[in-house]
Amino acid sequence: xxxxxxxxxxxxxxxxxxxxxxxxCAFHEGGEGYCEGCHTILGSPSNQDWSTDESSSAVPPTLxxxxxxxxxxxxxxxxxxxxxxxxxxxxxxxxxxxxxFYWLQKTFxxxxxxxxxxxxxxxxxxxxxxxxxGLNPDGRLSQAPGGSYHSAALGCTSCHDxxxxxxxxxxxxxxTMVPSSYGEEPSTGTPPGTFRLLGGVGYAGGQxxxxxxxxxxxxxxxxSSFGWAETDYNHTAYGSGxxxxxxxxxGGFLNGSTGGVAGKHPAGKxxxxxxxxxxxxxxxVGTGDVSGSQTSAYLSLVPFEVDTxxxxxxxxxxxxxxxxxxxxxxMCLTCHRAHASAFPSMxxxxxxxxxxxxxxxxxxxxGASGTDALHSYYGRNxxxxxxxKQRQLCNKCHLKD
Length: 401
Prior knowledge:
Number of strands: 6
Order of helices and strands: HEEHEEHEEHHHHH
Low-confidence stretches: 2-25, 46-59, 170-176
Strand content: 5-15%
Structural class: alpha+beta
Largest sheet: 2 strands, antiparallel
Helix content: 10-25%
Number of helices: 8
Oligomer: single chain
Strand order of the largest sheet: 1-2
């Protein structure tokens, strides 16, 4: 009876680890997940341990992805409709910091003053190839803007290291690591992992790679382990290195890069937020309202990097704006989502309209579903919150409205 009670308790603990809401995705605890979670293993006798027996002359097992491609394999878990860790919904309701790949399946059209307009699905984000889920290569771009990574090779593992072998500053081929997304402390002698399992220096860009070797380390950032829906009070806190990491594939956009793309907004450690810009950010509440204060100025639609290499100093619940010391900086994710958004160029807001109330998608647009307008701004009613005359959110920093 005692053994039975212990077994029941053990089962309950295991089920709780995987099923309770709010718990960090247990599959990736300790770094990579268990092999059979992603692979079907063929040709291995049930009594053969291939990880320890190197003397066997039998043919080693074949590892086959459970999806038809790497991203389809990832989405077997990360497209679970009601799960916190889902990044692909059926209505744009996954308000994760990176965005919802749902928008890659949505093209919007409308007419205004006798002219026709189109917001193409493949302009809304990183067009990962996940054929099992109807996600195809970008139909407009053959390679990464500002870089050379081939669109046909783009997938989840282009950015995320599925086997967690990449440290922040190099590659470790012998140890799986604890990911550093939620402030976990690795055990003694274990190298620290990277935020969101992002590839570090030397990462080759995934199984479908096109000759890329990452030169910049994964960024320093931290997120809350409870609730993945982004708000002004529960959001990713960015420390440093985000733009530099993006530049592994988009080097032409990095501030101060050689051969950079002309006319693009500065981003990176060199794009410091001056005292004037900090004051603008902190005082700006909305068009016509500059009554804000630094302690409550943070807006999740316009995040920033605080310039620290220590994740322990980051607070995902902070509502504070940038300080006036000139340490904080603009990064790629200040204006863009990492995965996808409802807007062109995966913008956090619609870059192609003057007033936020005129953003598309909106009710009546071709291709728009009933909740698309609300979900495009993460459930925020922009007119109710900011008013009908609210202008572009560039003004959070530049105060030109």
